Amino acid sequence: MSEETAIGLKCRLCGKTYPKEALNFCTDDFGPLEVIYDYEAVARTLRREAILSRPRSMWRYRELLPVDGEPTVGRQVGGTPLVRADRLARELGVSELYIKNDAVNFPTLSFKDRVVAVALSKAVELGFQTVGCASTGNLANSVAANAAAAGLEAYVLIPDGLEQGKVLGATIYGANVVAIEGNYDHVNRLCSQIAFRFGWGFVNVNLRPFYAEGSKTMGFEIAEDLGWRAPDHVVAPMAGGSLIGKIHKAFQEFERLGLIDGPVKTRMHGAQATGCNPISATVRSGASKVKPVRDPRTIAKSLAIGDPADGYFASRLIVETGGWSEDVDDESIVEAMQLLAETEGIWAETAGGVTLAVAKKLIEQGRIGRDESIVLCITGNGLKTQEPMLERMRKPVVIRPSLEEFEALLGASHATARADADALAAGVV
Amino acid sequence: MPVVRIPTPLRPHAGGLDRIEAAGATVGEILNQVTAEHPALRERLFDGEELRRFVNVYVNNEDIRYLDDLATPVAASDEVSIIPAVAGG
């Protein structure tokens, strides 16, 4: 790219501006910092033809990402399928349903590869040699893998008691994985202290303004794949509450640049688990402050953030866009994971079960119209969260390698069908 | 005396210190004393009499929102940490 389109950082509360540095909060009022862009410069090169001519990765929208020059980390991230989900739609009684499937994102099978690609490209640009994160699992996997590929030293901090797939998915890449006694919020607090003390690049602490922008690419891809339009409804899972806001920001930026027709009227719906529902509780009560959850308990461990950094902004966005937020229990999460797998062949992680179960609830409540376009954001892969499913799934039937036993297993109706098939085959011969 | 930990980016407003000892029986009293000595911290941490939305304060390992907010008692051996809330996720 010939021009730098990201021009600085700005406090979302007071508007004070900062240069593009590794800082996540305003030193005047602790407000979150957000990247600001020169949209005129963006508009000069980011047009539909230009986007379509570029490789299908998240970087085809690179003018709207805060990396100066070519990205150096995660160059093939993104470009995941937007699946028209007609079989699931029939089950839910709706007409136009899509799954944005980041369960197959590259390289670590979650949407976190998007944010990490931006954060670590920025870390390299800023000269960091050691990077890190506070994670509920998916981020740990992505930081570990992408740091390995980039030759960076990584410190990955997770709560103890995570799913085995997520722990292994971090250690395999040679990262320094440290499990903290306690929950995610304890991990996060420690990371806030570590990042500045050691001068490391923590993707979701001091690099957070850059990191968070990566989530917009999920929204850009949705709008492009819908034929350059924003959907009527998006249902997104909420942990820290950042993703839902960035998807909406993506639609707004596309509108501003004339890449989609406005005004964007997408209703943003947020999904949480009942065992950790600080944002959905805020939306439903209409409170102005998010009350943190001290002891999150849910099988959706990737969403178990009791004190969400963007909870305030997420709850406001949901209300302002005419969306809603609900939470669902563990049993509903598992049922929804199965429903998605059996209707669409997509095995999402527990957070995906949360998203689908909440969508179902919102459709039943009439908050999502049955004839309107709906996108469900699936952010992680079921292979990583096997524990809650193992005990619930049917075990395979074991038989000897014998045709009789197989026929006995199929039962009488199949035996008849086989006789018909034999007769047909005989006739043809 | 209890010790207050100052986040690195705010140290220029706290005389460059990373730990400040302060007398007081509650979080509120202790922060009042610290901000009396370092007035530049006052407006950064507080909006009127309340902590700003994105300022988290801990006594040892516990968030004061789960205790008694600014009225949370603090013992002489305790550590009070000021942590920016905008992180993670």
Explain the overall architecture.
The complex is a heterodimer of chains A (429) and B (89). With 429 residues, chain A is of the alpha/beta class. In chain A, helix 4 packs across helix 5. In chain A, the strands form three sheets. In chain A, strands 4-5-13-10-11-12 form a six-stranded mixed β-sheet, with helices on both faces. The termini of chain A are far apart. Chain A has helices spanning 39-45, 48-53, 86-92, 112-126, 138-150, 164-171, 184-198, 208-213, 216-225, 242-256, 278-285, 311-320, 330-344, 350-364, 387-390, 403-410, 412-428; strands at residues 6-11, 17-18, 33-37, 82-84, 96-101, 130-134, 153-159, 176-180, 201-202, 233-237, 267-273, 325-328, 373-378. Chain A contains 17 helices and 13 strands. Chain A folds into three domains: 6-76 and 112-212, Rossmann fold (3-Layer(aba) Sandwich), CATH 3.40.50; 82-107 and 215-390, Rossmann fold (3-Layer(aba) Sandwich); 399-429, no CATH class. Chain B is α+β, with helices and mostly antiparallel strands and 89 residues long. Chain B has one domain (3-84): Ubiquitin-like (UB roll) (Roll). Helix content of chain B is 20%, strand content 26%. Chain B has two helices and seven strands. In chain B, the strands form two sheets. Chain B has a five-stranded mixed β-sheet with strand order 2-1-7-5-6, with helices on one face.
Brief summary of the model shown:
The complex is a heterodimer of chains A (429) and B (89). By secondary structure, chain A is an alpha/beta fold. Chain A contains 17 helices and 13 strands.
